[in-house]
C-alpha cells in the first residue's frame, strides 16, 4: 500500500467515526453512571471560588462556585487523576476510582509562590501525578513558560534539569537529554511524533514557539510508549486545548503575544482567537518572527538572521460521550547559516523549511474501557541553498509521514489498571535536488504495546512491554552507489518501575527500561558533502540497531514551601552510532571527512533541582547537572557531551505592589565548567559564568490580566563558547540580550 492510499483510507475511517460519535444516539446510549463532586478550601478552611478542577485524561473540567463546590457528572468508569489548581496556591492531585461508585473530594490548597505542575501526560499512557511518575519529569507551563519562552521552542527548556540544547545560532536548538540528542531524543507534539529530517545537526523541530501552552520533558528511555528513537528521553510540546463551554469558556476571546530580543533585533508577535458554543470549540493562531544577525562581544555573526510565518487552526466537539478534534498547523521558516569566516567570509548559505501537519484526536469512553485515537499526517520540505542568489537548492528533501495510534485504557481489575496500544507509521522520503545526500526510501513501522499499573497501599508498581517491526525500503541511487534493497528490523522493549510514596510530600522512584533505535537512511547510505554541517559524511550500510538498558533512581519532595528532586542514572547503549573524523579532507569541497561507526557506550550522571521559600518575599533555587559519556571499546569520551553545570538563583516576590499583581525581581547565575573531556578532533571549551536578571508581573485589564516580563540575559556581556554550539570552533555565543515578553488576553463575546 502506498502512502497516498494509506492516508486516504485513514481519513475515510476518521470521517466515518466522526459521523458516529456526533450522532445523538451515540451520546444517549453510552452508559455513564458516575459523578465527581467536592469542595475546595484554603488553609483557613474557607471556600475558594474559581478554582480549576479537571480530569486531564477525559479533557473534562469545571470551576468551583462561591461556596467552593464543584460537580462533574456523567463520567465514564475508570481510575483517573484529578488536578486542582489556582493561581498563588500549590496545585494538588487526587486519584479517584470511578469503577463502582461516585466519588466525593474535599481538598485544601496551601498558598505557595512556587511554580510546579502537578500532572504529566507524557510519562505514562494516562495522565499521572508528577510525584508518582516512574521516570523523572520536568514541566514548563504558565508564568514560568512566559518568562523562559525562547526564539525557538526547544530553547525554552534549556535550563530544565538534565536538559541542554545543541544550537546553530538563535533559530535552531535541538534538545539534549542526559547527553543524548538528535534521533536519540524523541520530540512529539500533542502526542504525535514530530517527523522531519532529525538526523541533521542543524535541523531543529519545526514547531512554532508562540503556539505552545506546555512543554514536558521525560528523562530516560521511552520506547515502550513511543517506539524507536526515545533512548535518551521524550520532549512533548503541548498546545492549548480547545475551549469548552462546560468549563466556562467565552464564545469569542483571544490572546496577543509579543516577544522582543535586543541582541539580534528580533521581534515576534502572535495572535490567537478561541471560543466555544454548546459542544463546539475552536482555536486559531498566527505568528510572525523576524531576526537580524546575532551580536557577540567580538562583533556580529554575518548571515545569522531568520524569519518565520506560522499558523494553525483547531476545531473540536466535546460532550459527555467524549471528544473529537482536528488540528492543522503550518510552520514556514527561512534561516541563514553563519559559516567559518576563515573559509569564506562572504558565504551566505540559508535554509527554507516548510512543515504541514494534520492531527486528528478522539477520546471515546465505553463500558469497559476508554479508547483514545491519535492520527496524523505530516509533510516536511527542507531546501538548502548555497547562497542568497541561488535559483535552485543544492538539497531538497520531502518527507511525508502518516501515523496512527490507538490506545485502549481498560477499567480496573482489582488494584490493576492499564493500557493496550497499537501504533502504525508509514513514511516516504524523496530527494528532489541535484545533490543526492541520501537515497529515496519508504519506512513502515508497526508496533503493539501493553502497560499495566498496580497500587498496593503506598507503593505503585508499573510494567510495560512493546514489540516493533520496521521495514526500510531503499530506492536505487547511482550517485551514492546505493542499490535497491530492503531492511527489516525487529525489537522488543520493556520497562519496570516502582514508586513509594513514603509520606504525602516525599516519593522515591526506581525504574529500569530497555529502548532501541533503528539506524537512519542517512547513517546507512550518506556519501557526500553536507553543506549544513560543513563536512563530508560517509555512511555504513552494515550498521545495526542501537539498544539501551537504562537504570535510574530519583527522590522527590514537594510542599507549598519546598520542592526538589535528585536523580541518578546509568544508561548502557549497545552499538552506539557516531560520526568519527577520518583525518582526511575531501579535495572537491575542502571539508573534513567523517565516517559513521558503532561501539558500545555508557552514560552516567546526576541531576539535582531545588527551590524553596526562604521568606514570604524570597524564593531561592539551585541545580546541578553532571553527565559523563564513554566509548566502552576505547575508553574515550563520546562526542558532544554537555559540560557540567551549576545553577543558583533568587526571586523577590509578593502578592501585589503598586497595582502590579504577583510582581517579581529575579537574579540567576549559571556556572558552566570547562569541557576538556572530548572526542579526538572535537573542540574543547573553557568554563564560564553567566548572570541574568529579570522582573515582571501582571496588570489587571477588566476580567483579564496582562503579563509583562523584562529580562537581561548575559548581563555583563560575557565572551564565551557553549560546548554544544555548532559555531564554537570559530564564533562566540551571543552577548548581552534584553528581552521583553508580553501576553494580553481579551474577551470579545462572553
In terms of topology, how is this protein built?
Blueprint: H1 3-21, H2 24-29, E1 34-41, E2 52-55, E3 60-63, E4 69-75, E5 79-85, E6 92-97, E7 103-108, E8 119-120, E9 128-129, E10 136-141, H3 142-148, E11 163-168, E12 172-177, E13 185-189, E14 192-193, E15 214-219, H4 223-226, E16 233-238, E17 252-261, E18 266-277, E19 280-291, E20 294-296, E21 299-301, E22 306-319, E23 322-336, E24 350-365, E25 369-385, E26 395-413, E27 416-431, E28 441-456, E29 459-474, E30 485-500, E31 506-517, H5 521-525, E32 527-530, E33 535-538, E34 546-558, E35 562-585, E36 592-615, E37 618-631, E38 636-637, E39 645-653, E40 656-657, E41 660-672, E42 688-701, E43 704-713, E44 737-749
Parallel strand pairs: 1-7, 13-16, 33-36
Antiparallel strand pairs: 1-4, 2-3, 2-5, 5-6, 8-9, 10-15, 11-12, 13-14, 15-16, 17-18, 17-44, 18-19, 19-22, 20-21, 22-23, 23-24, 24-25, 25-26, 26-27, 27-28, 28-29, 29-30, 30-31, 31-34, 32-33, 34-35, 35-36, 36-37, 37-38, 37-39, 39-41, 40-41, 41-42, 42-43, 43-44
Describe it.
Helix content is 5%, strand content 57%. The protein is built from 5 helices and 44 strands. It has a 22-stranded antiparallel barrel. Strands 10-15-16-13-14 form a 5-stranded mixed β-sheet. Strands 3-2-5-6 form a 4-stranded antiparallel β-sheet, with no helix packed on it. Residues 13-31 have low confidence and may be disordered.
Amino acid at each position: 500500500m502506498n502512502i497516498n492510499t494509506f492516508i486516504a483510507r485513514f481519513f475515510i475511517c476518521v470521517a466515518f467515526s466522526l459521523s458516529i460519535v456526533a450522532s445523538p444516539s451515540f451520546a444517549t446510549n453510552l452508559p455513564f453512571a458516575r459523578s465527581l463532586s467536592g469542595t475546595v478550601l484554603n488553609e483557613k478552611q474557607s471556600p475558594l471560588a474559581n478554582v480549576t478542577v479537571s480530569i486531564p485524561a477525559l479533557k473534562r473540567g469545571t470551576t468551583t462556585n462561591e461556596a467552593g463546590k464543584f460537580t462533574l457528572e456523567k463520567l465514564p468508569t475508570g481510575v483517573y487523576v484529578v488536578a486542582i489548581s489556582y493561581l498563588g496556591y500549590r496545585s494538588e492531585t487526587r486519584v479517584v476510582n470511578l469503577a463502582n461508585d461516585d466519588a466525593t473530594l474535599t481538598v485544601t490548597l496551601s498558598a505557595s509562590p512556587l511554580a510546579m505542575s502537578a500532572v504529566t501526560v507524557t510519562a505514562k499512557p494516562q495522565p499521572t501525578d508528577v510525584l508518582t511518575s516512574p521516570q523523572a519529569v520536568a514541566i514548563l507551563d504558565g508564568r514560568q513558560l512566559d518568562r523562559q519562552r525562547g526564539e525557538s521552542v526547544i530553547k525554552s527548556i534549556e535550563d530544565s534539569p538534565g536538559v541542554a540544547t545543541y544550537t546553530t545560532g538563535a533559530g535552531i536548538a535541538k534538545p539534549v537529554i542526559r547527553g543524548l540528542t538528535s534521533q536519540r531524543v524523541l520530540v512529539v507534539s500533542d502526542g504525535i511524533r514530530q517527523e522531519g529530517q532529525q538526523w541533521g545537526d542543524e535541523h531543529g523541530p519545526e514547531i512554532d514557539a508562540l503556539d505552545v501552552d506546555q512543554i514536558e520533558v521525560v528523562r530516560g528511555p521511552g520506547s515502550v510508549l513511543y517506539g524507536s528513537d526515545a533512548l535518551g528521553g521524550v520532549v512533548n510540546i503541548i498546545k492549548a486545548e480547545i475551549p469548552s463551554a462546560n468549563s466556562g469558556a467565552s464564545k469569542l476571546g483571544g490572546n496577543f503575544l509579543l516577544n522582543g530580543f535586543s541582541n539580534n533585533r528580533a521581534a515576534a508577535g502572535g495572535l490567537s482567537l478561541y471560543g466555544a458554543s454548546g459542544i463546539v470549540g475552536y482555536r486559531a493562531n498566527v505568528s510572525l518572527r523576524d531576526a537580524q544577525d546575532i551580536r557577540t562581544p567580538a562583533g556580529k555573526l554575518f548571515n545569522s538572521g531568520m524569519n518565520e510565518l506560522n499558523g494553525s487552526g483547531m476545531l473540536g466537539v466535546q460532550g459527555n460521550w467524549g471528544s473529537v478534534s482536528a488540528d492543522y498547523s503550518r510552520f514556514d521558516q527561512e534561516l541563514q547559516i553563519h559559516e567559518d569566516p576563515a573559509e569564506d567570509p562572504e558565504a551566505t548559505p540559508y535554509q527554507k523549511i516548510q512543515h504541514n501537519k494534520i492531527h486528528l484526536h478522539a477520546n471515546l469512553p465505553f463500558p469497559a474501557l476508554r479508547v483514545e485515537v491519535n492520527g496524523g499526517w505530516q509533510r516536511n520540505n527542507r531546501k538548502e541553498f548555497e547562497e542568497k542568489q541561488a535559483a535552485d537548492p543544492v538539497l531538497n528533501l520531502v518527507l511525508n509521514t502518516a501515523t496512527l495510534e490507538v490506545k485502549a485504557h481498560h477499567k480496573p481489575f482489582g488494584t490493576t489498571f492499564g493500557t493496550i496500544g497499537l501504533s502504525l507509521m508509514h513514511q516516504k522520503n524523496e530527494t528532489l535536488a541535484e545533490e543526492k545526500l541520501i537515497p529515496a526510501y519508504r519506512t513502515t513501522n508497526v508496533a503493539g504495546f501493553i502497560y499495566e499499573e498496580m497500587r498496593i497501599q503506598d507503593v505503585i508498581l508499573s510494567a510495560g512491554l512493546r514489540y516493533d517491526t520496521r521495514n526500510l525500503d531503499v530506492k536505487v541511487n547511482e550517485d551514492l552507489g546505493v542499490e535497491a534493497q530492503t531492511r527489516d528490523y525487529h525489537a522488543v522493549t520493556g520497562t519496570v518501575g516502582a514508586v513509594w510514596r513514603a509520606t504525602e510530600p516525599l516519593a522515591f522512584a526506581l525504574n529500569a527500561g530497555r529502548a532501541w533505535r533503528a539506524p537512519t537512511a542517512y547513517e546507512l547510505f550518506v556519501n557526500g558533502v553536507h553543506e549544513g554541517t560543513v563536512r563530508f559524511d560517509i555512511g555504513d550500510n552494515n550498521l545495526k540497531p542501537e539498544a539501551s538498558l537504562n537504570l535510574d533512581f530519583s527522590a522527590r519532595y514537594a510542599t507549598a514551601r519546598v520542592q526538589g528532586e535528585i536523580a541518578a542514572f546509568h544508561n548502557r547503549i549497545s552499538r552506539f552510532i557516531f560520526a568519527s573524523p577520518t583525518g582526511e579532507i575531501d579535495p572537491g569541497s575542502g571539508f573534513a571527512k567523517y565516517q559513521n561507526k558503532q561501539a558500545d557506550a555508557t552514560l552516567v550522571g546526576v541531576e539535582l533541582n531545588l527551590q524553596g521559600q526562604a521568606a514570604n518575599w524570597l524564593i531561592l533555587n539551585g541545580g546541578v547537572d553532571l553527565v559523563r559519556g564513554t566509548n566502552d571499546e576505547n575508553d574515550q569520551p563520546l562526542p558532544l557531551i554537555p559540560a557540567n553545570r551549576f545553577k543558583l538563583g533568587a526571586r523577590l516576590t509578593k502578592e501585589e505592589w503598586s497595582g502590579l499583581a504577583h510582581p517579581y525581581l529575579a537574579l540567576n547565575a549559571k556556572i558552566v565548567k570547562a569541557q576538556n573531556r572530548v572526542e579526538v578532533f572535537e573542540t574543547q571549551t573553557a568554563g564560564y559564568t553567566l548572570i541574568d536578571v529579570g522582573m515582571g508581573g501582571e496588570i489587571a485589564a477588566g476580567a483579564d490580566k496582562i503579563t509583562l516580563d523584562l529580562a537581561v540575559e548575559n548581563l555583563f556581556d560575557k565572551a564565551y563558547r557553549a560546548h554544544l554550539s555548532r559555531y564554537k570552533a570559530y564564533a562566540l555565543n551571543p552577548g548581552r540580550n534584553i528581552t521583553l515578553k508580553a501576553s494580553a488576553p481579551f474577551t470579545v463575546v462572553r
